[in-house]
Amino acid sequence: MADVKKEWYLLYCKGKEELRALTNLENQGIDSFFPTMKIEKKVRNKLTCQNVVIFPNYLFVEIDKRTANFNSIRSTRGVIDFVKCGANYTKVPTALVAELKAKQLCRDKAVNAVIAYDEGEAVIIQDGPFKGIEAIYQCKDGLERSVLLINLIHNVTTLCIANTEIKSKSKCKQS
């Protein structure tokens, strides 16, 4: 079997149609990717969590230049064209796409790992310089951090810490 040399290219998509293009490309068997992140937005006075595209209108595709049908990719629903530099299609370094995918996976894990704590609930810090210290949960500080009250040398102090570094005290006893 011949050595398959796939490379990543950059596509320009129609406005807010990255997901449509990704779905249609994957139906054609083409590996596609666009990085997203979850952010909190206030919608009608309610805090909601929404997925936001980091590079709006752009999509990464991994194809073999020798066997890929560039016209088919270009005419996929949601896609406008390849990003070009002069007459050449813009290649994206594989290491960059791998890093973007890894960071996306970490962000998704961190958001999914968030446990809803109640105000006043006792928690234990699991990692970092305050590991092992008991604290009182106060409130969220964005998607990835929480505000805790800790007692250091008989002085109550507030501390902002990553959600992944705390665990409910009652859940620690069960483990």
UniProtKB/TrEMBL annotation:
Ranges for domain NusG-like N-terminal: 5-104
Transcription found in the keyword field: yes
Q: What SMART domains does its record include?
A: NGN
- Record's GO cellular component, any one? cytosol
Keyword Nucleotide-binding among UniProt keywords: no
Gene3D superfamilies, per this entry? NusG, N-terminal domain
Family annotation (NCBIfam families)? PRK09014.1 (NF006534), RfaH (TIGR01955)
List the protein's name.
Transcription/translation regulatory transformer protein RfaH
Write down the species.
Moritella marina ATCC 15381
